[in-house]
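Q: Structure tokens for this one, please.
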Amino acid sequence: MIYAKKSLGQNFLIDKKILEKIVNTTTIKDKVILEIGPGTGNLTSYILKKKPKKIFVIEKDNELSSSLENKFYNQITIINKDVLKVDETKLFDEQVTVFGNLPYNISTEILSKWIINLKDNFWFECLVLMFQKEVADRIIAEFDTSDYGRLSIICNWKLNIKKICDIEPEAFFPKPKIHSSLLLFHPKKNFVKINDPNNLEKVTRIFFNQRRKMLKKPFNQLFNGDQKVLDKLKIDLNLRPQNLNLETYYKLAYEYENLRG
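A: Here is the predicted structure, written as tokens:
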């Protein structure tokens, strides 16, 4: 009997209707699949039924890795590592479809790592990922809302995001105390080019450091009150960070990068 480990944020998905919904979110047949945190392999079994070309799974837990090896034998390739230490760009020769019931304690860290390290040639075709509902709400939040912030801006930079459904705690074992949401991510064809994504990370961090304060202080900190940037982007410094839309933040990061030469 395998027990979920709290330290690894493990909650195993057991609801058959939800498992079915997840594998029907995108095309699996003849695709290379990467599954993050397969746990006891419930979703893996459903993916296999859809006849993928190949399945890779990343599972940090040694006990679960051994169990998956016994359960699926040579049907899947198991990578027994911490996903945060894996360079996915070096694993595949073609774009992959990613599924993940991400450990809630590191879900934003995983997604941020992928986005910050993204080159223009995306290593994935799409991402089908599950998050704590509160985190998902922040990812898909629109500007001028209380959930809108750094996570919304960074996630939507190179990706189109669609919410598939909310998932009740009863769909898992052990039952978590929170609700979950399933999101679908596709690469954007057009986005503001920022050479170093860390500049976007820095701009959003400084602007949202005091999200209830007006824009004047963070703008001056980054741009030293540069009037040309204000005029070009038509920014009112009396607004607050959540009042600026996504595109404005991407353009701010671009201008900040240019300013630094």
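A few notes: The chain has ten helices and nine strands. The beta strands are 12-13, 32-36, 54-58, 77-79, 96-101, 124-132, 159-167, 172-173, 180-187.
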